[in-house]
Amino acid sequence: MSCEKIKQNISIRMVLESFSIFPVKENHRTAFYFALDREEKVPSFCVDFIRNTAFDFGTGKSYDVISIMQQIKKCSVAEALKYLSSFNFPVNIERFAEEIQPETSYRILKVNEVRHPALMQYLDSRKVSEQKKWVREVHYQLNGRKYFGIGFKNDSGGFEIRNKYAKICLGAKDVSWMNNPNNINNEVAVFEGFFDYLSFCNVESQFNLTCDCLVLNSTAMFFKAQEKLKSYDKILLFLDNDDNGKSLALKINATYDSVEDCSLIYHGFNDLNEWFVKRKTN
Domain range holding 212? Predict the structure, then answer.
């Protein structure tokens, strides 16, 4: 795929999401992210979904999808093109722009207990159907089309939506706190995604823990939990075994006094759920 075709057919948003980078705030046309190359409290990296371009208000630099890939991977243009060419679901930007609605691009139609056979099968494939009480079956309309998926609610009322084909957030992006009234040791377990949390619920008794739980729903949302984490006597990390997870683990270790990295339990696997699926399958 040529440079121009890549710029026209692969959305910046899709690339950022492939690295678990999500917007802090957004509207129907633009979104603000934290800067890609520095820590900050106020997001300054703005993406224009229609033009498929980005601008960093902190540095004054403009980006297209290729230069963003270079910034993230610290690589050459050739290496960026190689990565971008691997995307299997290109998004035509002009068509995407036409589909954007004036006020909002989504509407939640109904929220039920999970019953749909396809969603139950998906939960079974992730080996967490026993924990379906923590999630909902969410039917929604996106850009005029109707969909449904597994929904996990965050603290701002938004839903993390997952199914075999989708990984999106409806509403404001935020973390999800689960408080345990039996948390006598004042401990908290931290997860990146809710499937890791559901997996943890299945094996919680084996860890002999009665702790609070925090699902970040994205490593980019860590800033929302920073202050509250200071109130705990111990932080247990169940983060992903990838660059993002390891980077965040180092940051948390350097910031708080008592931190235990529990990723060694699922060493050799990307995350806790992947390890749990393999364990249940064997």
Answer: 176-281
DSSP state at residue 239: -
CATH number at residue 39: 3.90.580.10
Which tokens is 29 given? 């046309």
The enclosing H or E element of 55 equals strand 53-56
Residue type, 218: S
pLDDT digits (tens, 9 = 90+) for 77-115: 888 888 887 664 444 444 444 333 333 468 899 999 999
The band of 21, judged by pLDDT with boundaries at 50, 70 and 90, is: confident
Residue 198 buriedness (CB in 10 A; 0-12 / 13-18 / 19+): buried
Same domain? 165 vs 195? no
Q: Tell me how far apart the alpha carbons of residues 211 and 230 are, in angstroms, rounded to a whole number.
A: 15
Select from 69, 99, 129 the last residue of a domain.
Answer: 99
Backbone angles phi, psi at 244, to 5 degrees: -65, -45
The region that residue 147 occupies, defined by phi over 0 for left and psi between -120 and 50 for alpha, beta otherwise, is: beta
Over the stretch 253-272, which tens digit does the pLDDT of each residue have?
Answer: 999 999 999 999 999 999 99
CB 197 within 8 A of CB 272: no
Q: Which residue bears the tokens 């199914």? A: 163
Residue at a domain's end among 153, 170, 187: 170
Prediction pTM value: 0.68
Cα separation values, 266 from 9, 116, 151, 237, 238, Å: 37, 31, 25, 12, 9
